[in-house]
Write a structure and sequence with these properties.
Blueprint lengths: L21 E3 L5 E3 H7 L12 E2 L5 H4 L18
């Protein structure tokens, strides 16, 4: 099951489950579109993988399969 993380690991921007602004790598590291494009240039700083748009879980499935609530933030931020 895909872990729908609640925030960008770089800037801590909220990324609710329905956000089209969330991008992820194959390890589910999560970033907002601005950080992914402007700071990271489409590459995950953790694993080097490609960042792609996170799928949106249908609202009817969120009750049974809720989004994650634990926030992840890189203490030093992301590279510029």
């Amino acid at each position: 099951m895909l872990d729908l993380r609640p925030n960008c690991e770089c800037c801590n921007k909220d990324l609710p489950p329905e956000s089209p602004e969330a991008l992820i790598c194959s390890f589910e590291c999560t970033f907002c579109r601005d950080c992914a494009q402007q700071r990271l240039h489409g590459t995950c700083p953790n694993c080097g993988g490609e960042l792609v748009r996170r799928p949106i879980r249908p609202a009817s499935k969120l009750a049974r399969y809720p989004a994650a609530t634990e926030r992840t933030l890189k203490p030093a931020g992301c590279p510029h």
